Structures are given as structure tokens and as C-alpha cells.
## 1
Amino acid sequence: MGIKQITIIGTGLTGGSLGLSLRAAGLGIHVVGCDRDHILSRARKLGAIDEGSDDPAEAVKGSDIIFLATPVGAIIDLIERIGPTAPPDALITDTGSTKKEIVDRARSVFGDQVSRRFLGGHPMAGKEHGSIFSAEAGLFHNAAWLLVPSSPQQDIRNGRIREYRQLLETLGAHIVQLDAERHDRLCAWISHLPQLISTAFAGTLVDEFGDDAALHAIGGRALREMTRIASSPYSMWRDIAYTNSGNIEQALGRLEQRLAHIRENLRTQELREEFERANQFELRKPE
């Protein structure tokens, strides 16, 4: 593999797990982290990075692949900030949960060189607590890693991009290619909507029951599963909601219609039909 050095800007859950995964794979790749000093110190102690810098322009020097593993808004700013100074043969990628605004910024910065310089990425793996303290080497094993080309002409099978794909597969991820618009629509439904449902449900429980200990004493698996991701921090989701608001609003609207129909039919045969329709989702899963 021709990858000798990787820079990870943002060594939280995703970036830290990426560093730990690279170390566990034994690839001999030098990993440079970029973050605040106390986070870099923790990342070094865990073995997620070999060296660190709080200056993105310094951290990218000499790297073959640069991962932007920060919140979406910071990714957009970083493309503008490091794009002109990153090594000319380096591939810049990201781990953001939305893609259209990120890819649009990359096109603006790199122009007709965007196919060579930037490829959008999104590992479909995470936890409700997004810090270096939750990082783990196996986070991406058997997870989908979405690749989002920065232009229709981008060939994701050759050159540095081919090495990047091989790297991800070595870490146990499987590659799925999507364009930015389809990525954002799908993720609104399968990731962003579930988070907001959990957030709304947990918030409603707080309003209805406050500190009533009985709620947790008798709550079983359904309660735990529905509220697990409700502990996700706003700082993690603010930029996702902002940059994918149109798709999220559409998904919320469709869900509101479904809930209204269920509420209106709690005593009719149509409630059974709702359950039967929902059962089809599990039955349609590929083997």
C-alpha cells in the first residue's frame, strides 16, 4: 500500500476510532492527529495517533490522505482552510453525516481538480457519546462506509482513491457509493429521523413524568432502545439538522401523517393494517 501517512483532523469518536483501527490493523501508517491539546494527549495515550498538532495547516504536511472528522460545519470550513495548502497529491475526505453542502464547498475550492483532490465519505457507525473516550478499534468492522463522489466523472477505482478504498476494506468496512443528494435523503430517514424521534420521545417523558423513579424501574427493553440515542449531544446534531433540514422536514412530515392516522384508528381495523405494513419492513430485509 502506498499510503505512508494519514492526518485525522478531529480525534473524537470517529477520528479516534479510525486511528485505533489503523493501529490494530498493523499497517505501519504514521497517523497525525489534529485537535485541541488535551484531546490529542488522550489520543496519544490510547495509541490512536503517533503525533499531534493543533494547527490543521501543520498537521496535513506530508500526508497521503487527510480525514476531516469534525462536525459538518467545521468540515465545510476546513475544506476552505486547508484545501489550498494540503499536499497536491493528497486525497482529502471526510466523515460527515450530510454531504451536499460539503461536496458543494469542495467543488468551489478545488474547481476542475475536485475529482482528484476530494472524495466525500461517511462511516455508518457511531455511538450516542461522541468523544475520544468512547473510541474503539472495531467501530467500523462490518459497517457501511458511504463514498460520495465530488463529481460525476470521479473514478473511485483508481489511484489514491483505490488505495483509500482498500484501506477502508482492511478496516472491515464495506463500501457503498451514493451521490450527495441521494445520500442526504436516505440518511434523513435512516439516521437523522430516528435520532429526532428518540429526542422527542425522551423529552416528552421528562415533561410527563419528571423524576418519577417508577418510569425506569418498570421500563424494559422497548424503553431502553427508544431512548438510548436520546443522550446524543446537541453539538453533534446541530450542523446535521441545519445542512439537511429540507430532507429532515419532509421525513418528519410523513411520520406526522402516519402517527395521526394511527391515532385516529386506535379502535378500527386500520390499526391492524398499520402493523402488517410495518411487519413488511423486516420481511423485506435482504438475507
## 2
Amino acid sequence: MDAVPRFQDGTDTPRAYLERCLEVIAAREPVVRAWVTLNEAGAREAADAATARYKAGRVLSTIDGMPIGIKDILQTKDMPTEQGTPLFKGVQTKTDSASVLALRQAGAVILGKTVTTELGMSHSGATTNPFNPDHTPGGSSSGSAAVIGAGMVPAALGTQVVGSIIRPAGFCANTAIKPSFGAIIHRGERLAFSQSHIGVHAGDLTDMWRVLYEMGVRSGGDPGQPGLYGEAALRPAAKPSRLIVMESEGWAMTDAATAGAFEQILGQLRDAGVTILRRGDNPLIENFEHAIGESLAICRDVCGYELRWTLENLVERFTTGLSNSMMSRLDLAHSMTIEDYRLVLMQREAARRAFEAIGYLADGLISLFSIGPAPLMENKAKDSGVTHTTGLPAYNAATSVLGSAAITLPLLSVSGMPVGVQVIG
């Protein structure tokens, strides 16, 4: 947040910064529709408290006074957590999730709840892409990605089980991170999937890391996990010596313009002296690509089985209100046996072992974030034959299966829309 030095020298204040954010929201929200709830009174109170701390020299953290949006899957004590479904309209838990509590303890200004797809799955909400309202912002962290792309706030929280941070972030020109599995505790999040990650959408790397770091040192990781590693300040930029291109199952589906733009990035890296390795260059990389080649199906089956008890309880409690797509997930869950689930877990573990085996070959992996720029919104897509209206997570499923850290950077533009590039480690 570029305002921090001005907060420190008194030429700006967290309250004044918040008011500028609210002005942007007032101007852009009628079209972008990224917020479910705004707690302006609570945010102003928190911003005033941060202003007083800066004046007194008692700053709590590097994000003290930063306005932040919270995906409406994560519990907040002062706002409803509706989870993108009318079934939970107005439901307020009166408790904070671990990540939100950590942000408050760091002095962040929790401004509101951002739109999510239904229960954080694929049935989309009303949010539009801030770069073209005819296009999807992606999902399921639709609102969190859109508020960053629209310049409404400097950071927002997202969650990912398959592709729900990286994909919308790439569609909306965010810098965003899905940390390694278990790095940030996800207690107080609606579903405890074995691939659940909490991450950060931001306008730049510095804000992204500051928010993640301040959460990590206060909330810790998932039970039994060591949590987030790293220092408070980003390390100086350093050129990698070798990078592996992760094709996954997405490469064969990628449109020509997006593939061409990505190849240009790879060419620029080669020109800078970075060795680029691909699946044909080493049998271990080929084995890795084979192991992640069914990541979409692995995610579908793992999530389907793990979602069963939640959906069964909802169907028993509410006779209507779930979308057809959500009911189809319940049908999938009912079709699976415990033996099926064990088999898909074995597939996932094999992919993780193959990933570990290539670790010594390069400094990291590089990949696209999506098979193309943001698809048309659902009402537009019906006329054009587009089926995946929040975007197909073909490149994201692999990193969720692996539990690896992934960052998307807004490096490309295709057909006038943002296209992100993933860096994976």
C-alpha cells in the first residue's frame, strides 16, 4: 500500500485513504457488483483507530490501516456470512474466522464481504469483470478479484480448493497467491476440504506478501502444519537460473493467442539467460506431466466426496434453494464409494511425489493461469456456445492437487483482457 509512508509522516491518514476507497466503490460498484456487504461505519471506526496509532507512534504492523475485503465464505463477527446462497441470507455467526481475526489484530480495516459463487463452487454470482462487464471475473473468489481489479481496495482474501484464487486473479489483473497447503489456518471457513487454501488478492507483490505474512504469524497454519515460512519484508528480486514449464492438461485446451503470448514470455526469459525446461527435456518432467494429467478429475472426485455430508445436511434442512449444479455434485458424491475416494487420494499422492522428484531440476515452475482470457458472462455465453462461464480451472487444478504455492502475475493481455502467468514452487 503506497500510502504507508505518508501515514507515517502524517501527510495522509488511514481514514482519508478509506474515504478514497469508498469513493471508488461508489463509482464502480453499480456495474462491477463485487460486494455483498459493506460495513462502512465499522471500517471508519477501525480507520480512525489506526490513524490515532500512527499519530502516537504505536503502529501494529505493516498493514495497519489497510482496507481489506473478505470473501463471503469466511466468517466475520460483524457481518453476515451468506456463502453465495440464499439459504444463508442474513446468517451471522458473530465470530471471526482465524484469518480475519489475525487481520484485525494487525490493525487492518475490514471493509466488507465480497461476492462468492454458491458455497464457493461453480454456480456464479452477479459480479462482473472490472475490465469488461460482459465477461466473468472468474470464481469462486469473484468479488475479491474484482475489487482489486477495479482499484476499490489494496487487498482482499480469497480461498481455493481447485482454482478459486488464481483463476479470477488472472482474469482481473491481480497479483495473488495461493500459499502451500496448510500455510494459513482455514478454521472459520465454510468447508474443510483436504485441498482448502486461504490466500490473498492484491494490487502488487508487496501488499500481497504483507497481508499473507501478517496473517501467517498471527493465525499459524492448519493443525499439524508448520505454517507460513518467510520474513516480513520481501527479498530483493533475483533472476532464476532454470524454470520448468508446467503444461498440465490445460496446454492442449489453450487458445492460440494465449499460447502465443505465453511463448513470448518464455522467449523473453530465455533472452535474459534463464534456461527453460519442458516435458520432452527430462523423463522426470514427462512423468510429472503424466501424474498431473488428470488433475481436474482428481479435484472433482476429492471435492465431490468430501462435500457429501455438507450437501446432505443442507438438502435435509432446506428442501429447495440449491442450484442444479450443486445437486449434481451431490449425485456424484452418492455415486462414489470409500474405495473410490481412497483410489483418488492415491492418485493425488502420486502427483505430489512426482512433483517432489523434479524439485532439484529448476528454481520453480512457470505456467499460464487459464486456457484463455475471461469468458463471457453466463447470459452472454448462452448465445456464443461458451460452457465454462467462470473459466475452466485446467491450469489451477494441478497446483491445488499438489498443495504447492502458486502466484499469478498480471503479465499478459489477450483480446484486450488481462491474462496472468503462474509461478509455482
## 3
Amino acid sequence: MREIILTVPAEFDGVQAQAFLKARGFSRRVLVRLKQSGGLTRGGALLRTVDAVHSSDEICVRLCDDSGSAEPNPLLNAPRVYEDADIVVFDKPPFMPVHPSIRHRHDTLANLFAALYPGLPFRPINRLDRNTSGLCVCAKNRYAASALSGSISKVYYAVTCGLPPGDTVDAPIGRAGDSIIERCVTPDGQRAVTHFVRVGGSDHHPLLKVTLETGRTHQIRVHMAHIGYPLCGDEMYGGDISGIARHALHCGEVSFTQPVTNETITLTSPLPADMSALLK
């Protein structure tokens, strides 16, 4: 159980508790769970979501989570680069899936999380492909998950086959035929915008710093392939696989606001050795 104490500021004096909590990032679903579990109190007394709160009130929020589901595997390794009572950030290595699947039941980040935090559900906020390395932010409770969802700034680093022109790709992305996994640029796809700038490497293997306006499946990989400069090692989208055993993509920076303390957290991860080797 996670217990959070929130002090009501003057601007929320007299409003309903639910309005104050929504402003602090609590989703409707989390508020319903708090009502059902009696998880809101003020001065030791039960607080209803429709009750008025007042300046300087101390609201106690008790978050009860469902149990976890993945099988624990303590033998896995993904360094924790940040942790507090609500959030943990892993530096995920390549070749490690985030979620279990038929082919990967015991070697995922979810299995490691289950070993480190028995009973806690696994709630990754930014999901990375199996072969994408880098920072993966995970929430330890429903409140953190709802507050962080859609609010994390991410910076990726990619090595492409050749130096792409320009600095932006704006092209809609959808499924490629009947494939469950593969994506492509298609007129009836979802809007997708990728920005990039060269920060190192050579014209043959440039290192690109990439940011996204949208978060489509395989967005960076699809967009770079679409303009004729696929990621090195990206066999699915036509990249040269001779120099690296996976697509050369790394989540190298994340930034987010800690939902309880309102502190801005910025974390970085160095470029992995296999990607660095492409730049030599």
C-alpha cells in the first residue's frame, strides 16, 4: 500500500475533494477505486469525493493495488537509474522484451519487476520494442500511472544507413497489410511526426537525436525507412544488418514531473556499445 499526504493550497479552498484530486492527476478510475476502498481520509475521518476541502487540509490517500501477474525472474538484469515510492526507471538492455508473450514468458522486464516488487502490478509508461534499448519508466501504483501517462518527454538516438535530408518526417502510419507487427506509411494511417538532427557519426552512419510529436508503433523505424534511410540493423524495414545484431535505436533521455512532489526529473542513459561501434 502506498500512502500519500496532500496539503490543499489556498486556490482549492471550498472545492470538492474530487476536483482537487483531479487537478493533482488522479484519474476517474483511481477516484472510483478510492471511493470503493475508503482510501481517502482527512484528520483520520473518512473523506468522500464530494466533500469540500479547505486550505491547509491534509488529505491522506491510501492506494491499494491489485496483485502482479508475471512470473518473477530475479536472474535478469536491467539497472535501475531512478527510484522513489511511486516510480522506478530501468535502463533496459536490447533483446529484452518489456511484456511477456508466447515466445518470451520468463525473460522480460515484467518478470524482473515481479521479482523486485512482489505483488505490485507492472505498469510501464513508455514501452520499448524488444530490441530498443534505454530508459523505461514504470509506475508503482495507479495514481502514478495515470499522472504520468502521456506526459513523459523522451529523446531517442538512432544510427541510420546514410544521412537523411531535412529534419522532419510528417507521414501517417498504419498496419502493413494483415501483419500484426509490421507498420508502414499509409494515407489512411494515424498522424505521425518525427523530428531529427544529426549529433555525431559519419555520413555513412550518422547518429541522430530524435524526438516525437506522436507515439505510433515503430514510428522512428518506419519514418526513417520511408524516406530511404532505415536504421542500421533493422531487418524488418530494410536496414543493413552487417554491423549490428538489432535495430540501432536507444531511448537516451526521459523527463517527467514526479506526481506527488511536483519535482522535474530528467534522466539520461549512455549510448550502448553496439551502437557506438557503428560510429567508429
